[in-house]
Each structure stands twice: as C-alpha cells, then as structure tokens.
Amino acid sequence: MADMTKRPFTIAVSGKGGTGKTTVASLLIRSFIDAGERPVLAVDADPNANLNEALGVTVHETLGGMREEAFTRAIPPGMNRHQYVMYRFRQALVESDGFDLIAMGRPEGSGCYCFANDLLSECMQQLERDYRYIVIDSEAGMEHIARGTIGKPDLLLIVSDPGARGMRTVARIRDIAVSLGLDPEKIRVVINRYRSGMAPVETGSDHPFAVIPDDPAVEAADLAAEPVSKIPPDGSARVAIGKLAGKIMEMEKGC
Ligand code: ADP
Ligand code: MG
Predict the structure, then answer these.
(1) Atom of ligand 1 nearest to the CA of 15
(2) CB of 71 closer than 8 Å to CB of 131
C-alpha cells in the first residue's frame, strides 16, 4: 500500500528525438512496478506520443483534445465546466496493471488558455496524490513544464546517444531546463545505446547517471510492434534501467 501522505517523486525524461526517451521511460515504469513501487503515473508529454505503445495500452483521448472540447462544447446539464473538465479528465486516464497513463497531446496554439491550463494543472494535482512515482516522457522543449501544466520534476533525466554531438544537445536541453527554474542538481545525463568497443563516454563535467547498452531485444520489440516494456527481464537494457530505477529509489528515500 502506497504511503498517501507522501507526494509522488516525479521524473521527467527528456532528450532529442530518437535518443530513447520513450524506451527509457517505459522501462523505468516497468522497473518501478516490478520493485513494488506502484502505482506509477505515466505521462506522455511528447506530441509524437507513443509511450502508450511502449507500455502496451491504448489512448482514446488526450488532454489537448479534451481541452478544446471542454471549452467549446455545451456542458451536459447539471454539471458546471469545472466538473465537466474533471469528469473528462478521469475518462482520459488509461488505467492498467500497476500504472495509469495520461497523454497530454499537442500543446495549444496561440490565444489565452490560462483558465484551461489552470484547470488542467489542478486535475493533475488531484490525480498525482495516489502515485508513488510519476514518469513523464517529455519532448526536448519541455513545453508542458514551461506552461505549468506539469509541475517541476524532482529529477530530470536527459537521454543522449554516446558521442560529442549528443553531448552538445544535452547542454542545450540543460540550459532550457535551468531557464525553466529547475535546480541543476536535479538534472542527470543518461547515455543510451552504448556499444562495447565505443570510445569512452565523454560527457564533459558530467558523470553519466546511467549508461544503457544498445540491446537487440529493444530493437526486436520495435520491429515486431511489441511493447518494449515487455522485453525479457534479463536483457541488457532492462537490467541497466532496473539499476537506474534502484538509484532513483535511493534518491527518493533521501528526499
Ligand atoms: P525517443 O522517444 O527519444 O524518440 P525511442 O525510445 O522511441 O526514442 O527510441 C528510438 C529508437 O531507438 C527506437 O527504434 C528504439 O527501439 C531504439 N532504441 C532505443 N533505445 C535502445 C537501446 N538501448 N537498444 C537498442 N535500441 C534502442
Ligand atoms: Mg518518444
């Protein structure tokens, strides 16, 4: 039974497209659940949303889509807009074994949506209370954190491929995160798709928080359109991400 008096520990996974954010996020979620740290809230905050596929669940509605509707359509009789938004929010939440998932959808265009965003962040806060961990699959710009729809994470993992170019992107994402008010102490680098024989990982002043091997099982799941979270537990990527989850659990205890 989760300790309901404690707020959940929030991890945002960011990085350039294709570096492995969704893979790392979904295997982290799997690891927390396997370690008994459940329920986990999975938040897909990447407009190219596919965290649900990596976790093997179907999304019927995103918050972005819901927001458009909840503010343009007639509200059912007997409900105010606020209640209606809460109701739709609960519907958008996908419940699964050990985790729930919410997909943010596209960030809105121009125009003032402050009221909508306030309502959404309120929904998010009400929701968050039940979870041990929240894992956010976030695009590099971290738009939802910038808009306050998602609170500041306790830990930001920046995923990168090994190599100098990847490291420059890490530096840029770190700058964005710091400009959004994140504590630099809470930002860690995860090197993904490392192959033995590669030059040692050069992360400048950063010691990588985790190095995830390139694992054929991950690619095989992708090719077979199988959820990556269901790859066997003894595979190298899953083992490495399991260790990463262990480090995060240690961190969380220290909070
Ligand atoms: P992102 O979410 O950052 O766009 P994905 O997690 O979708 O990245 O990964 C991009 C591609 O790289 C996918 O085809 C995925 O299967 C592959 N991939 C990611 N991590 C690994 C890994 N450790 N080993 C092998 N393939 C990987
Ligand atoms: Mg992705």
Answers:
(1) 3
(2) no
| Ligand 1 neighbour 67 (Cβ under 6 A) | no
Tens-of-pLDDT digits for all 255 residues of the chain? 444 567 899 999 999 999 999 999 999 999 999 999 999 999 999 877 799 999 999 999 888 777 777 777 778 889 888 888 888 888 899 999 999 999 988 766 555 566 777 777 888 888 877 899 999 999 888 888 888 888 899 999 999 999 888 888 999 999 999 999 999 999 999 999 999 887 766 666 668 999 999 999 999 999 999 999 999 999 999 999 999 999 999 999 887
CA 84 to ligand 2 center in whole angstroms: 30
228 alpha carbon – ligand 1 mean position (Å):
9
> Which residue has a Cα nearest atom 22 of ligand 1?
214
Tell me the sheet residues that pair with 213.
194
| 9-253 under CATH 3.40.50.300, yes or no | yes
In degrees, rounded to 5, the angle at the alpha carbon of residue 98 between the alpha carbons of residues 97 and 104 is 90
For residues 26 and 133, what is the distance between their CA atoms, to the nearest angstrom? Answer: 13
Q: Helix-strand-coil percent breakdown of the chain, rounded to 5? A: 40, 15, 40
Q: What is the DSSP string of 31-73?
A: HHHHTT---EEEEEE-SS--HHHHHT------HHHHHHHHTTS
Query: Domains of the chain: which residue ranges?
Result: 9-253
Judge if the beta carbon of residue 222 lies within 6 A of ligand 1.
yes
State which residues have CB under 5 angstroms from ligand 2, the bound ion: 21-22
Report the alpha-carbon distance of residue 44 to residue 49 in Å, rounded: 6
Global confidence as pTM: 0.92
